[in-house]
Amino acid sequence: MDVSGSDVKNVMDTVAKIENEIAKQMVGQRELIRQVVICILAGGNVLLEGVPGLGKTRLVKTLGKVLGLSFSRIQFTPDLMPADVVGTNIIVRSGGEEGMFKFQPGPIFSHIVLADEINRATPKTQSALLEAMQEQTVTVGGTTYKMPRPFFVLATQNPIEMEGTYPLPEAQLDRFLFKLDVPFPSLEELTDIVTMTAGNREEELQKVSSGEEIMIMRNIAREIPVAKPVLEFAMRLVLATHPESEFAPPVTKKYVRFGSSPRGAQAVIAAARLRAVLDGRYNVAFEDVKYAAYPALRHRVFLNFEGQSEGITADSLIGEIISALG
Amino acid sequence: MDMEYIYKSIKSLKNRMHLNNAVLSLMWGLAAASGTAFFLACLSLFVPVPFVMRILAGVYLFAVLLSLTAALFLRPGNLAVIKAADALGLKERLITAYELKDDGSPLSRVQRYDALKAASQTNFKALYAIKFPKYQGLACVVLALLTLLCLALPSGAREKAAGMENLANEVKKQAENIDKERKELSKKAILSDKKLQEINQRIDQLLKELKKADTEAKAVKALAKTKHELEELQNKGVSSELKQLGERLSESPATRDFGEALKNGNLADMKQKLEQLNNRLKNLSPEGKKELAQKFEQAARELANSPELAQNLADLSQALASGDLSSLGSHMASLENTLSQLARSDSALAQAMQQYENEVLQQLSNSLDSARQQISSQGGQGSSTAQGGENPGQGTGSGPSNKGGGGAGDQSSNRDLGYSGDESGGGARMPGQEKKKDYEGIYAPSRLGGDSSASQVKGSKGGAGQSQWSEAEGAPVQKGNTVPYDQVLGEYKSEAMQSLEGSSIPPVMQDMVRDYFSSLE
Questions:
Q1: Min CA distance, A154 vs chain B (Å)?
Q2: Are B115 and A223 an interchain contact pair (Cβ–Cβ within 8 Å)?
Q3: Is A321 exposed, middle or buried (0-12, 13-18, 19+ CB in 10 A)?
Q4: B105 and A224 in contact by Cβ < 8 A?
Q5: A265-279, B12-26, B63-77, B305-319: which range is least confident on average?
Q6: B1: contact with A, CB 8 A cutoff
């Protein structure tokens, strides 16, 4: 694909419009919005983590409207079954004929799927999302169904320490491109949130993009060149999360049980490319890699007991790895 | 877009990086030089290192030149500058452009343009400061201060080194004088090329040895050796042709007187004897003339190196053989003329040699004497030279005689007579100070029995018999005086010569003793 300077500029403009439109419904959280947009344009799934009431669901819904994509929401509960997510074959009779099985698609068959409070469902139901998230297909009764393009899952979860939650299996976590922490709003933001939502005034949202446009922007972003030193730095960064790696700093060796999978490296580069585009550049810089490392790796690094007991966070660990690599 | 535009846009950064490299290189060089200087300064506290300041200056100069030369080759490459520029806020634009330089896709072209634009808008002078390498600078300062401290500390080795410096300076100065005199001698053109060449060879050898000489003894030895060689050259200078002819003519009774005069090289005597020979030839019998003619002819054949003299002798021989007495006179006159020229040439050579000895070599000897005095005086202040304070001196003395005898040693051996060694003379001559003959003081004992001639008793020492020794208080010991050594040199020399004659000493060793005393004159 031949990408010109104007194409890159269009991506920048479109993303700016998307962000501005979302900002009409979302108070503050600009960085969160930026990261979600990056993740969507990179073709990944997002795991949003935060306490209830921070606007996670609202953000996803707004995003669906702004992008003009079909949107479905699945509220994950402990009794939710996989078939409730992906759909099931049902017997259909019409005109006295013999009944035949017909696939009834589940709510997952949308462009944007909001898996709300995903960690409240059982692991079996959570795993129903695996194939859809990775291969973007669903197999039911021996038949594989393709998901609409673009397809991405935006899952929200409450912190694991809260009651009635099931930790996501590592394999499923790895399918999320980003894990984003939703911060609690500041005083001013909280005031604005209350002002906006407690009244009758409702901002009208405009559709500023489309599925095709998103696919084009995704392809454009993939053409952004990455210099060899930058690519090597990203790879060293990912390898440095492995305690047995030669690049691992002491902090990794001390506190990490497992490091990031190769999907982490892919996620870092993909996100770094988009970050460069949104920054108005035609190349990926070290700072893009560093920026992408936190959301792309924080759910892929698993601390050992010592790290957990000492209160080490994945973000602090990644920060120290970046410092160690220079 | 060509990468050259990008290279141009980062040229200012490249220059600044080069300057930084040069400063760093220079400071590393200075730090290394300071380390070396400190080591040398420490070393000079224990080992004599002459001209240590000059060496230190040379070390610093060498380090500066080397580091500046290295700095020429420390110009950073484009890739290094690109990386540095990216680190200064260009966000890897340049390195990406560099990697995509051969890519003609629209995105690559846009990227290169973006990189060029960013580079052109960046003020590298503000972002990239010329850094002073403070650690290297601090090391330089600390090491330099330590070096100065070391150099300020007094030590015996340093005093010894100062003495060596004085000697070397003096030797160098006198070597220049010798060279100057040699050139003057060449200009005068009174010597034949061959003689001059021989003298030059010896002088060159002397200059080499003087340059190598690191002690007074070696310098004096080289000087004495050359002096001896020049003396030999002078002795050899009396024309070998004349001697050869003289030998030949001495064999015949008719020409014996003339032959002796030729051997002596005395021009006046030669003329007189030649006149006598001329008169004698007229009265000579034909057989005598014939015999003489053969002698002359034989001599002419032997004098192949002197064609003019050979021709004269051949003419004379022919005239004698033919009995042509009329032309005999003119041939004798020609012979006299040729002999006079040869004798004058020898005389000129002798004169030149004498002049050389008297003026140049004497001047050199005097200069080296002066330098030696300085060394000696420094040695007397505590260094362990042979003339130093505690070492017992060696004296020569005569045996018992009816007029008494005395011994002469150096000053340190006479402490029992109430003299200490610090009476030695000879101070360092300051630069620019007029040079004067300042002889080292030497102790001259008075002989018991007053002024009288010493007698030599010959004999051999036997192992038999007994000897008793006792110390007598109040013995009639006469003290002497410390006088400049030139006042006693003649006396000591004559005693030494007498001892040489009365002792069984190999001729070579005798020459060494003679040379030694000659060098003191």
A1: 31
A2: no
A3: buried
A4: no
A5: B305-319
A6: no
State how many domains chain A has.
Answer: 2
Last residue of one domain, picked from the residues A220, A235, A265? A220
| Residue B386 pLDDT > 50 | no
Is ipTM beyond 0.85?
A: no
Q: Tell me, what's the pLDDT at B396?
A: 39
Same structural domain, B138 and B262: no
What is the gyration radius of the CA atoms in chain B, in angstroms? 40
| Residue of B91, B100, B106 lying closest to A225 (CB–CB) | B100
- The chain A residue lying nearest B101, using CA atoms, is A227
Instruction: Give the helix ranges, DSSP H, for B265-409.
Output: 267-282, 286-302, 307-322, 325-355, 362-379
pLDDT band at B30 (very low <50, low <70, confident <90, very high): very high
Which residues 54-83 of B are in CB contact (within 8 Å) with A?
Answer: 83
Mutation site, B6, B96, B102, B111, interface A, largest A CB count within 10 A: B96
Closest residue to A282, CB basis, from B83, B99, B107: B107
Task: Check B96 against A4: CB less than 8 A apart.
Answer: no
**Last residue of a domain, which of A195, A220, A245?**
A220
Cα-Cα-Cα-Cα torsion B137, B141, B142, B146, nearest 10 degrees, comes to 150
Number of neighbouring beta carbons within 10 Å of residue B165:
18
CATH number at residue A283: 1.10.8.80
CA angle B380, B385, B387 (to 5 degrees): 60
The confidence score (pLDDT) of residue A255 equals 92
How near does any CA of chain A get to the CA of B87, in Å?
A: 9
Q: Are A194 and A61 in contact (CB under 8 A)?
A: no
Domain shared by A7 and A28, yes or no? yes
> What pLDDT shows up at residue B240?
65
Q: Specify the number of domains making up chain B.
A: 3
Is the pLDDT reported for residue A231 higher than 90? yes
> pLDDT-derived band of residue A321, with 50, 70 and 90 as boundaries?
very high
Structure tokens of B383?
A: 């260094």
B224 in the same domain as B133: no
The domain of A278 spans 224-326
B contact test, residue of A11, A282, A290 with most B CBs within 10 A? A282
Among B348, B370, B386, identify where a domain stops.
Answer: B386
Residue B91 has its nearest CB partner, among A224, A225, A285, at: A285
Sorted by sequence, the CB contacts under 8 Å of residue A20 that are 6+ apart come out as: none
Percent of chain B having pLDDT more than 70? Answer: 68
Contact B106 A226 (CB under 8 A): no
Q: Which domain holds residue B375?
A: 156-386
| B5: CB partners within 8 A, 6+ apart | B116
For residue range B414-434, list pLDDT tens digits in order.
Answer: 333 333 333 333 344 444 444
Residues A209 and A231 occupy one common structural domain:
no
Residues B54 and B162 in one domain: no
Per-residue pLDDT averaged across A220-249, rounded? Answer: 92
Q: How far does Cα B141 stand from its chain's mean position?
A: 39
Facing residue for A283 by CB, picked from B92, B105, B106: B92
How far B113 CA lies from chain A's nearest CA (Å)? 10
Looking at residues B431-442, what average pLDDT do you find?
54
Of B386, B406, B425, the domain-final residue: B386
What is the pLDDT averaged over residues B57-75?
91
